[in-house]
Amino acid sequence: MDADDRAAIGDMIAQRLLCHVEGAPSVAGYIAVGDEIDPGPLLQLLAGQGVAIALPHVAKRTEPMRFLRWVPGRPLHPGPLGLLQPPPESDPLAPALVLAPLLGFDRAGGRIGQGAAFYDRAFAALPEARRIGLAWSVQEEAGLPMEEWDMRLDAIATEREWIPC
Fold first, then answer.
1. How many angstroms separate the CA atoms of 153 and 112, rounded?
2. What one-character-per-residue DSSP string does 47-92 give?
């Protein structure tokens, strides 16, 4: 997929998600790495509507991920695992809704991430936050095994559909 196609899909997903995130006073997104679905267009739209935006910040693989406030267009710093993230002195934010990148998912809200449990630990620390995964439709699995610490998603958005879990 070329850059123009990816941008068009990012815009389409932003429009699809907009009605599902309305009313959230704060949203945590991420800066896409590699082939991840890019939530950037949605984060820009939400920021323009006055929604507080946060991005994940990882100091070390062994430490919990934090969500730090970010304004689209402000500088980001390189972090572990190829992340671009707000500087560590940015204000912490407990988001009402978290957008999570996925490597795989099932329709029951099971997810596969990068394997370091950053999002599972963040979800456990934010039990009231809505959890929405972003993935390509080809990443869907029939069923994923779940461990006791795995946190299910509330919904998944793909380039093809909205999947409530």
1. 11
2. HHTT-EEEEEE-S-TTSPPEEEE--TTS--EE-GGG-EE--TTSPB
Distance CA 22, CA 45 (A): 11
- With tokens 């992340």, the residue in question is 83
Q: What is the pTM of this model?
A: 0.92
Which of 49-63, 110-124, 130-144 shows the lowest per-residue confidence on average (mean pLDDT)?
110-124
Whether the CB-CB separation of 29 and 43 falls below 8 Å is answered with yes
pLDDT at 69: 98
Right CATH number for 3-164 from 3.40.630.30, 3.30.300.20, 1.10.630.10, 3.40.50.10420? Answer: 3.40.50.10420
Tell me the pairing of strands 130-134 and 162-164: unpaired
